[in-house]
Each structure stands twice: as C-alpha cells, then as structure tokens.
Amino acid sequence: MALKRGLFRLAETYRPSRPHIRARLLATQSAANNEERQSKNQTHFGFQTVDENEKTKKVHEVFETVAGKYDLMNDVMSFGIHRVWKDIFMARLAPMPETNLLDMAGGTGDITFRYIKYLQNLRSKPTEGARSSVTVCDINQAMLDVGKVRAERLGYTKESSGVDIDWLCADAEQLPVADDTYTAYTIAFGIRNCTHIDKVLEEAYRVLKPGGRFMCLEFSQIPNEALQWAYDQYSFQVIPVLGQLVAGQWKPYQYLVESIRQFPNQEKFKMMIEDAGFRQVAYENLTFGTVAIHSGFKI
User: Fold this and answer.
1) Which of 29, 32, 204, 237 is a plausible cystine mate for 4, CB 3.0–4.6 Å?
2) Member of which family (predicted)?
C-alpha cells in the first residue's frame, strides 16, 4: 500500500496535462484506497477517500451550492440531451392513472413534471379517472425549494394537475415511509451520490408494493474505448470549465465527472439491484452507454 501511494505521489508531481491520463492515475489511487475502505468505514467522494458520514455532508453542500443553476447546467453540459433521456425514461415507466410514484432525488422536479404531463396526456380532463400521486423526495431542501417554485410557475398544483403532489426532504438510505406504500420508485442521476447504494436499493424495495417497479436513470460506462476516451476529454477538460463559467462553480462539476467514473458499470449495478430482491432486472443503454436505464420489479 505504501509503495502504491509513493508511486501515485510521484506521478502527481509531474501533473500530466492530458485529463484522461490524470483520470486514470486518480482511478488507480482510488482502487488502492478501496482496500482501506473496507476496514475503516470510508468511501469515495469523486476520486477522494473520505469518511462515510463526511460524504453525506459534502454531497449536500455540492447540491446546495448548485441548486439555483442545476437545470441550466444540465442543459449546457448535455447540449439538452438530458431532456431526451428523461423523456425516454418516463416512456419506459409508462405510468397509469392509479400510479403512486416516489420520485427519489427528484428535487427540481424534472421527472415529476414529466410524470404529470404523461398522465395528463392519457385523459381528456385532469380530473377524470383514478387519482394519481407523486412524492418528490430529496435529501437537499434547496433542491426541493427550486422544484416547488418551478411547479408553481408551470401551474402544477394538486387541483390543476389532477395529481396529488407532496414534497419530502429525506435520505434515500432511511426513508420515513411505511412498507409497501408506492407502486413505482424512480431515481434519476441521484443514486451515485449516495454513500451506500445497497441501502438505497433495499429501501426502494421496502417502500414499494408487491408488483411495484423500480427504475433508475444514471450515468454509466461506455463499452467502446475510443468513445470513452473522447468522453473523458470532454468530461475532464470542458465540464468543470462550463461549471465555472455558467454556475461560478468548478469543484462541484469536477466532483460530478469523478463520481460518474466511480459508479458501477451496467452489469455490476444490475447485480446489485437483484441482490436487493428485485426480479426481472434489465437495463437499456442510451447514447452509446453514456447513461443507462435500469428496471426491476418487486415480485
């Protein structure tokens, strides 16, 4: 372990100018740190190793800092493609009028608003048919506050939308929700920020009714090496710069690209979902695997 650290410090001294090389060096150090995490209750925050309780605080600070510019930066970073990903995600969920949804990490409302619009398109009048509901849940109140303002601006109230909307500030690893409550659980671009992914999945399973569906939209791994190289160039050279120019924040967006590299690939994440108890687990790659939709059922 000491030798690995010494080599890494030596490599850091020369500061390679190409971000993808630096990313690989940092990933090597991260892999070495994994050995220590098992016995010291440590985890990763991007490419850093931190105490588990410290990660929760750091992630909270990241999203509190960027909440006001979060949606704008999503448009800038993805050239608007995140909207297409989320539209596909909702189409795959295909909610029915009686759906009771928990939109986890849904702070600013992107998934919830698509859910409401999808349901409205199923019926001629918002008040017709079975009553649907959604609980927008996020660990960060600042993100929820942004979502509430957007909902009011878009006219998505309980009365006008035909959907009961609740806002809940809570930790995905410890939900203050009874067992077997929801028929659907979604989490979009949020699970990689959680300290214990396995606990998030266990909680998702617990709060879903039998037959309920879990769906996750998250950045993933591109299987093509050439495309991954190009993606690394963009991620490490451009995204933090955009964060500084648009949101006045470099570090949160440096963390963003690092956290994506730390997240399990499609197959590993599929196995984690199965380990939580879900069945008929499958995934679909979007944009060459830049993101993936994972789905499973509580049976």
Assistant:
1) 32
2) Belongs to the class I-like SAM-binding methyltransferase superfamily. MenG/UbiE family.
Summarize the annotated binding site as residue ranges. Answer: 108, 138, 171-172
Q: Which domain holds residue 36?
A: 2-67+223-259
CA separation for the pair 285, 293 (Å, rounded): 7
Whole-model pTM? 0.79
From the annotation, which residues make up the binding site for S-adenosyl-L-methionine?
Answer: 108, 138, 171-172
Q: What pLDDT was estimated at residue 242? A: 86
pLDDT at 99 over 50: yes
In this predicted structure, the answer to whether residue 8 has a pLDDT above a threshold of 60 is no
Token output for 158: 């309980």
Does any domain span residue 142?
Answer: yes
